[in-house]
Amino acid sequence: MSRSIKWMIAGALFCVMSTVFAQSYPIRPIRVIVPYPAGGGADFVARIYAKSLSDSLGQQFAVDNRGGANGNVGSELATKAPPDGYTLLVTASTNLTINPGLYQKMPFDVQRGLAPISILAIQPTILVVHPTLPAATVKELVALAKARPGQLNFGSAGAGSSAHLAAELFKMVAGVNIVHVPYKGTGPATTDLMGGQIPLMFNNLPPSLGLVKAGRLRALAVTGEKRSPAVPQLPTMVEAGYPGVVMTLWNALFAPAGTPSEILGKLHAEVLKAANSSEVRDRLSAEGTEALTTSPAELAANMKSETARWAKVIKAANIVLE
Global pTM? Predict the structure, then answer.
């Protein structure tokens, strides 16, 4: 038997074995790394999908929180895991599209280290102000900021956070001079906003919803491409007259690069089923988050375009993290 025929047979056997392996997958529990502490947005989304996938595939999808370096620690861990479908990653867009522009050197290759499966959920940020600030609309806020250049402060969860970059984008588009006050997390920044120590901030939608409804904060707009079902009365920044201020945060599912395509396809199909279930959609919606799915190619394209977009904002704002 010639060597070429032997290679053809070996290749055919490999394809058959891969297909059989994918059909039987999973046969043991799957670890789902979330590169942030428990209780955050990515963790919330990961646990909802983990339960749905556990129920549909008959194996436990166990969330493993590995926070650090704005998501880089856990994501690097995922890229180094065996590409066998038993380690997955649920992370946020900030980790994969903003961090490459913030850090002088990333600890892993964002484009080549991970196999994209699908976006799982999206949410806009929301522009909120202290109720005593004399601005009921975005245009009124811009007018106030231009009348008081350098006098209005905005808070964020830290330098390079999504809230920080949303505000920097707003500054660039609206032509205003407002001053960044970084905090060690969303919680402390929101507390000072409610206390009047800072007058405004862009914040993730879920932690702001209850405070807006209770009248402790005033919401002016959301940064999504369309209005949020959670606050349908709020205009988008586009509707408010600032079409360049668009930021939609997403959480997405990845596997280590090299994971068999059959397994990736099976996981993608299960994610589509989960996202279309009323249980998943309702649980996400209750927290101001929308279920959304994409093809792996669409997710990869989104990452590439968003990385380039935020790199320009980061460079213009001169933000650098070690």
Answer: 0.85
Identify any residues that bridge with 148 across adjacent strands, giving them in sequence order.
none
DSSP 70: G
Quote the domain boundaries for residue 54. Answer: 3-122+248-317
Among 117, 126, 178, smallest CA distance to 150 is for: 178
Q: b/e string for 214-243 if b means 16 or more Cβ within 10 A?
A: eeebbbbbbbbeebbebbeebebbbebebe
Query: Is residue 240 included in any domain, yes or no?
Result: no
The C-alpha angle with vertex 191 and arms to 247 and 217, in degrees rounded to 5, equals 65
* H-run or E-run covering 197: none
Tokens of 65: 């929180």
Three-state SS for 136?
coil
Residue labelled with tokens 């913030």: 102
Q: Tell me, yes or no, whether 113 and 139 share the same domain.
A: no
Which stretches of the chain drop beneath a pLDDT of 50? 6, 10-16
